[in-house]
Amino acid sequence: MALGKNLKKKKLIPSEEEVKPTKPKRKSKPVQKQTKLIAKKNPIEKPKARKKPKKNTVKTKPKVKEPEIEVAKTSSFAIPSYIASELNEKKKVLREKYKQEIQSIKGHELQFVSFEIGKETYAVGIEDVKEVVPLPQLSETPNTPKHIKGLANVRGSTYVVFDLAKRFNLMEEREPVYLLILNSTDIKAGLILPVLPSTFKSNGNLISSELQLIEDASLDVSYIKGIIQQQEKLIFFLDAIEMLKNDKAVVVPDQLINEGK
Length: 261
What we know:
Layout: H1 2-12, H2 16-19, H3 31-41, E1 71-74, E2 77-80, H4 81-104, E3 109-117, E4 120-125, E5 129-134, E6 138-139, E7 148-154, E8 157-162, H5 164-167, E9 178-182, E10 189-193, E11 198-203, E12 207-208, H6 212-215, E13 224-230, E14 233-238, H7 240-251
Parallel strand pairs: 4-14, 8-10
Antiparallel strand pairs: 1-2, 3-4, 3-11, 5-9, 6-7, 7-8, 9-10, 12-13, 13-14
């Protein structure tokens, strides 16, 4: 029995020293927290913003804009405004001249040459027509508007050739086959025509210089003297020489024209 008591004391019943609780070990801090501490100690330096260079305070003289040449449109081509203003003044003078001319031919029998352009019919005084010939081969002129078709040589004389359909923005699907040469000492020019022109007579009483009905339309009436009433048809009485003379002065240099002298 003595042996059992000794075993109990030694094995089964622990001594006070053995019963004493041991202090819990401190848990090691996670690696993440350590990295945070390190980051606080050694923060990453942000790149310093570059300083903007100081603007040059030296005042510069403002650039002076060169004067631009204004361009005005006349019919199907554009011309400088200073030339357009001169033409406008001429047109006003011409309008008054045409009114006086129409008034002076009242009661007189007149003869005209008429031709078709698109769906319209135009006429010029028979004294303004030199001749009508088959359309010869044309030589193109550089840097000219579309209504100037080129130059034509007729029996040794050179003429500037105009297309009235392009000049008046009219639809003309027929090919030109004739050249109407104008009778003028101021300009050597001709008109291309799709149909052979015809002649007719009319009394001055049947010609009106009032153009209010067509002035509001897109047709350029600057060089139309008046309207001729021929049976049931209205014909535009055209001052072709004055019109082509002004167009040629604007766009066709004299050097391109052989006067045939």
